[in-house]
Amino acid sequence: MASVKVKFRPSSIVGKEGSIYYQIIHNRVVRQIKTDCRIYENEWDDRASTVLVSFERKSYLQSVTNRIEWDIKRLKVIAALLDRRNRCYTADDIVTKFNEQADGQSLFVFMQGVISQLKRLGKIRTSETYTATLSSFMKFRDGQDILLCEIDSDTMMLYEAWLKGKGICPNTISFYMRILRAVYNRAVEKELVEQKNPFRHVYTGIDKTVKRAVPLKVVKRIKELDLSQKPYLDYARDMFLFSFYTRGMSFIDMAYLKKSDLKNGILTYRRKKTNQLLAVKWEKCMAEIVAKYENRFVTQYLLPIITNPLIDERKQYRNALCRVNAALKRVAKLINLLMPLSMYCARHGWASVAKSKNIPLSVISEGMGHDSEETTRIYLASLDTNVIDKANSLILKEL
Q: 17: Cβ–Cβ under 8 A, 6 or more apart, which residues?
């Protein structure tokens, strides 16, 4: 096993700061790693090989101490990994890996790299969920980064307890844990850390959620509301109904619908989440909503969600979703609906109503664009779109 020591080299000029460096010794070969940490000679304890934190420069000297502790931990981890994998490594190998992995051994920096890669791959929604998870974990750590090798079951159990103390629901806690586990496993694949299974004692399952589906009679009441004097509620109601009319289309897919997607009475779009191509028969109720807004905004998009070509489209979609969901909660109060109403309720609602009409589960899955192994087992071949369109027409006739 290699030894790692912290050394101080005083300046040859009297009264000038000297520098901190690390000494690596392995198989009697000595190598040095320079740092940009500079302190005065009277701020170094040579016997204990530590920085003496004085009152005058307390903040700076404490930061130097923290930096040294961080670097020494990294060096020892690198040496330990090399020791387990390759007994023939050299002191130069330790120095090389230390310099190569300067940004890869800590969770915060490694995860930020994963997020950047997701963005480059066009997986924007996934990158946003990873960003939210990292933000949560950073708050738990009070902004203090952690080495990947320091992530253990105790750390994750403490994080779980912290989330529970904040009142976070079990499914959200599990969501954060699964994302962190995916990041950790990626680091294991890259041989940045040894697998310790730190998530084995925390919850990573999925609880049954509160029912978010609204029955058909509630959708009727929402449709029949007089919102002519409240345009922002009227707009939210229209977006909710459009989602329901189109077999529970998700809001992000609605936002990016283009006018060119509607041809010969068929609305064709590709789901952002699964990339699955779906086709929906164009119904009168859908056309009425589009016609209501078509002269207010001139864009390539079918619905008035992304309306300003000078503002980031993703930002417009997210802001619109927040406004619509907030307005739908007001709509729920107008009809004395006790459950919180959101755009997601339209998607759940269509599936629930379709099921109550004894429409086969395979038809519902195809109509909503589900893409999973469970769905694949339900049906073996792609269904005729006419079957789905008939199912949708059957539901819409009762409104």
A: 11, 38, 39, 40
Does residue 205 come out as left (phi exceeding 0), alpha (psi in the -120 to 50 range) or beta? beta
Q: Residue written as tokens 């403490």? A: 158
Question: What is the spatial distance between Cα 321 and Cα 315, in angstroms, rounded to a whole number?
Answer: 10
Sheet with 3-9: list strands edge to edge: 3-9, 18-26, 29-39
47 and 180 co-located in one domain: no
Assigned domain for 194 exists:
no
Buried b (16+ CB within 10 A) or exposed e, 5-39: ebebeeeeeeeeebebebebebeeeebebeeebeb
- Mean pLDDT over residues 31-57, rounded? 91
Residue-range definition of the domain harbouring residue 13: 3-100
Q: Which residue, chain included where needed, has tokens 């509160």?
A: 210
**pLDDT bracket for residue 341 (50, 70, 90):** very high
Residues 74 and 116 in one domain: no
List Cα–Cα distances, 165 to 14, 157, 158, 207, in angstroms: 55, 12, 10, 18
Q: Which of 217, 275, 227, 271 is nearest to 248 (CA)?
A: 271
Whether the CB-CB separation of 25 and 3 falls below 8 Å is answered with yes
